[in-house]
Design goal:
The chain has 2 domains: 63 residues, no CATH class; 63 residues, no CATH class. Helix content is 74%, strand content 0%. The protein is built from 7 helices and no strands. α2 crosses α4.
Amino acid sequence: MSVSHQDLKRDMSSKTDEELHDILYAHSGDYTADALDIAKEEFLGRKIDARTLSSLGTAAEELRRQEEARLGWPLRIVAFFFSTLLFGIPVMLAHRHFVEKGARRKARDWGRWGLFGLAFYVALFIIRVIVPGLFK
């Protein structure tokens, strides 16, 4: 479905300065070239002062840091050992929680460590079945 140029212009004009700055400098990869051009035109047309521009840059940098923060070791251990319980439901719930908070990297890390845990338990099961006398 294609969005008309006028609809895109109307949408960008309704955005706040923070949202436009985010579109242009923090998440530009999420938008088409047309949307970026219109957002840039709208942002430059607002003639934002230097102090506001500086605070927008600081807020965007903080958002980027939050999105790319790694999952801490205690949560990695929890994901490794407990995510395979209940058919992986904890992995899905934790992933959704981190995505909703805007912590994309933590969501990816949680899923990765949950998969490592699943592989660990599968390997233990295979060893148990193949070499039954190993754990007796």
